[in-house]
Amino acid sequence: MKNNPFLYLSVIVLASLSGTAHAQDSSYHPALIDNFNLSVGAFRSDQAFKLGAEGHELEGKEINFNQSVGVDKSNIIGNLELSWKFGKGRKWHIAGQYFSNNASGDATLREDVEWQDVTFPKGSFVEAGVQFDIIRVFVGRSFIKNERQNFGVGLGIHDLDVSAYIGGEGLIGAESTGYQRYDAKFNQPLPNLGAWYDYSPARKWLIHTRVDWIGADIDEYDGSLWNVNVGVNYQPWRNVGLDLSYEFFRLNGIVDKSSWYGGLKMSYSGPVLSVTANW
Questions:
Q1: Of 20, 2, 96, nearest to 277 (Cα)?
Q2: DSSP character at residue 11
Q3: Under a CB-based contact definition with an 8 Å cutoff, are residues 29 and 203 in contact?
Q4: Mean pLDDT across the chain, nearest whole number?
Q5: 54-94 pLDDT tens trace
Q6: Which are the contacts of 210, defined by CB distance < 8 A and separation ≥ 6?
Q7: CA-CA distance, 214 to 206, in Å (whole number)?
Q8: How many C-beta neighbours within 10 Å does residue 212 have?
Q9: Cα separation of 72 and 65, whole Å?
Q10: pLDDT for res 236
Q11: Which of 35, 85, 164, 270 is the residue whose CA sits 20 to 30 A from 97?
Q12: Whole-model pTM?
C-alpha cells in the first residue's frame, strides 16, 4: 500500500482517544450516537483479475491475470474509513473509504497471450501487474434512527484508478519486439446508490452492514460495481473498539478509452480486521 498521510493521521487520532471519556452515554453502542466514526484496518483479500486490453480489437480474449501470467491471488491491503453524522437528529451522513492494492507476478506462458495488439507466445517468460486505487465518498440520510439502530440510504461516488501491464518479449506479426512493457490504465468516477443498517444488541456490540451498487453506461465505462461490507464491532472502551468484517468488491465492465480498450473483471473479497474510534 502506498504511504498515505491519512493513515498516519488516523493512528494519531486513535491513540489520543484511547483513554478519553465522553459526557454523553447510552445503553447501546456509542458509535450510534457519536458524530464521528473512524476505522483503520487490514484487509486480507482474495483477488481475481480478468482483463483485456486488445488495442484496436475489442473482441479479443480476456486474460486471467492470476492463472495465465502469475499475478498474486491474495494480498494484505490497508483499509481506511471515516464517517460524520450531522444535522437535526444527526440524520445526515457523509462517509469516505480508501484502499489501494499493487499485485504483481511472473510466469512462463502455457498458451499465447494477446495484450495491446502484441502476442506473447506460449513458452515465453512474462512479468505482469495490476494497480488499483479507490476513493469512495457517500452522502445519505437516516430514515430509522435511534440509540439502538440506524438505517439509511443515499448516493455516492467511487473514484477508480486502475492500471495493468504485461512485460516480456512479444510478437507483432512475425517481428519480435524485444523485451517491452505494455501498460493499460484508466481513471473513472462512478456514481452509485447505497444503503446501510447498524444494530446494537448490547452496550459493547454493534452489527453493521452497507451496500453500494451501480450498473450503467457512463462515459467510457459500461458495466457494474458492487461494494458490500458486513461485520461486528466490539467496543471495550468508550471511544475505541475492535471490528471484524467481510468486504466484497467487484468491478465488471468494458472500458473504451485510448489508454485502455477492452474488458475488465476485478474482485476483492475477504476479512477486514480494524481498530475503530468514535467521538
A1: 20
A2: H
A3: yes
A4: 90
A5: 755 445 578 999 999 999 999 999 999 999 999 999 999 99
A6: 194, 195, 196, 197, 228, 229
A7: 27
A8: 24
A9: 9
A10: 95
A11: 164
A12: 0.86
